[in-house]
Structure formats: structure tokens, C-alpha cells
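SAMPLE LOG
Freezer: B-3
Tube label: C17
Construct: single chain, 275 aa
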Amino acid sequence: MTDRRALRSPLPGPANDHRSAPTRARPAADPLASGTAQPAAVAPPLVAAVARGVALVVVLPVRLLWELIAAAGRLLHRYLLRPAGRFLRRWLLAPLAWLLHRLAWLPLVWCARHLLWLPLVWVVRTVIWPALVWLTRHGLRPALVVLGRVLVWLAEHLLLWPLRWLGTVLTPAGRLVVAAMVGAWRTAGRVLRLLHRLLLRPLGRGLRWLWRHAVRPLLRGVRWVWSVTVVPVARSLRAVWRATVAPVARWAHRSVLDPARLAVREVLSALGLRR
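STRUCTURE (predicted):
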């Protein structure tokens, strides 16, 4: 405690030498008083020491036991379980699989093929299929023929005859509807032709006469006036602009604006206001 206080003393000097000696001697004279006065400085190392002791007593043995069990498991898997598995697979499972394949699977396949499948195929070909063919020819075929005839009779008497009767009944009405539609179409055509003759054709002729004798001469006069008045004035103004304003603008840009911009840039660069 005295060494830490000595290290935290102020800077050395002639005015502080006589004060530093009593402060160094006071803790050495009464160590118990200093320990009781500052319990907070002793408590953290004590808690840390207790925690370390608990860790050493409880955590370290458990950690060592876990590492020992993990190492034992790895050694057991590497030197016992893996070789035992290889031995069993090579010398027990592989011969057993070969024996099962040769002594059990192949005989079962042969028995299923020669005792079940081939006799079943023979029975189907020789007994069941001919019976089905005979039944189809002598039993189902007449039944199907009768069923087809019944369906044809029903369709003829329930669908065709009502449709024919409806057609005979609706034929006069249909003829009247068709005649009315044809008459309406012809009347509409006549009305359109009459409208074209009386309205559209005179209107088209009047618009064409107006275009030829009024609009087109007016447009030609406007174009002639434009070409005589506006176009020469615009050309003369463009020539005057090119001869007077454009050279002055180019001279001002080259002789005044560019040097002024360069001077302002150099001044700003010299003052450090521009990079």
C-alpha cells in the first residue's frame, strides 16, 4: 500500500520533498489503520482469489475428467471400434451376404419364376384369355349390338324427330326473319346511297372547291409574303449577328473571361481555398 501511494505522489520538487517524507513514514508506522480504512482495495483481490480457488477445485477436475473421457473415446474408436467394424464387415457381413445371395435369394427367384410366374402366364394364355375372347364374341358382342340399336332408336325418336318437327314449325318464321333482314339491309343500302348523293357528294365538292379557290391560294400568298419579308430579314439579322456580336463575344471570352478565371483560380490556390 505504501509503494502504490509513493508511485502516485506528485512531481518531485524542492517544495514537496519535506511533505513526501512524512506521507511515506505514516503508513509504515500504522499498517492496521490503513488496512481498515480502505477495505475496498482489498475486497476485489479476495473475491478473485476465491473465484480462482472455486475454479481450481470444481471446474478444473470436471474439465480434466471431460478431456480424459473424450481422449478415451477417441482412442477406443480408433483402436477398437473401427478395427472391429472392419473385421466384422470383411469377415462376417460380406460372407453372410454372399451366402444369403447364393443360398436364399437366387433359389427364391428361381422358385418364383418357374413355380409361380411361368405357370400363371400359361394359365392366363391358355385358359383365361380364350375364355374372355369367347365371352366377348358370344356374350358381350350381342349385348353391345342390342345396346347400340336401343341407343340409336332413342336418339332417333327423342332427338331427331323433335328437331325435325321444330324445324318444320320454325321454317316459316325463319323465312320471315330472313326476308325481314334482307329487306332491312336493302333499305339501309338505299338510304346510304341517297345520303351519299344528296349530302356527302355535294359536301365533298364544296370542300374541294373551297380548297382550290380559297385555302390553297391563301396558303400560297402567306408563303410568298413569308419568303419576301420574314426570310430576308432573318437572314440579314443572322449575317449582322455573325459579323458583329459573335466576334465580340469570342474576343471577350478569350481575352477577358478566360484570363480572369485563371487568375481567380491561381489566387484561390495560393490562399489554400481550392485544391
